[in-house]
Amino acid sequence: MILLTDEQRAQLLANGRQPDADHIPVVKFFNPFGAGVWLATELDEDGDTMFGLADIGCPELGSWRFEELRSLQLPFGMGIERDLLFIGDFPISVWAEAARETGSIRDAERVLYRAAQSLSRKSSDTESRFP
Q: Residue 130 domain-assigned?
């Protein structure tokens, strides 16, 4: 599996040139066998150091090496995977707060998208009442 597309790499590098911004995650990596989720927002010019929200038991903002992530050997010859359906939607600060409150990125994802879906329904209800 390709862990990082050219488009994602370009966006991560562009975000890396603006380190003080509250970026929306570009890509989500995960361990298909258990703990381990990483939301990357930035990539340093070295092409290896990523920044974002990492959760290997406790969610925290920080940096990690992409090459280390890519080289992890999991059971059955598998490795870390990229969530092909992931769309960041929220700034990393929102992800970090939700992950800390819920205890994990995976739980935060459920809470955030459930809340967004609920708001979307309420918004469309309001729009239909006021043409």
A: no
Sheet holding 49-55, edge to edge: 59-65, 49-55, 37-43, 27-30, 81-82
pLDDT tens for 92-128 read: 999 999 999 999 999 999 999 898 787 766 544 444 4
SS3 content of the chain, % helix, strand, coil (to 5): 45, 20, 35
In a domain, 16, yes or no: yes
Do 101 and 88 contact (CB within 8 A), yes or no?
no
Domain count, the chain: 1
What whole-number distance in Å separates Cα of residue 40 and Cα of residue 8? 10
Q: Which domain holds residue 26?
A: 6-125
Instruction: Note the pLDDT tens digit of each residue in 50-103.
Output: 999 999 999 999 999 999 999 999 999 999 999 999 999 999 999 999 999 999
For every residue of 54-79, DSSP letters joined together read: EESSSEEEEEEEHHHHHH---GGG--
- In this structure, is residue 1 part of a structural domain? no
Spatial distance between the Cα atoms of 131 and 126, rounded to a whole number of angstroms: 9
What SS3 class is residue 81? strand
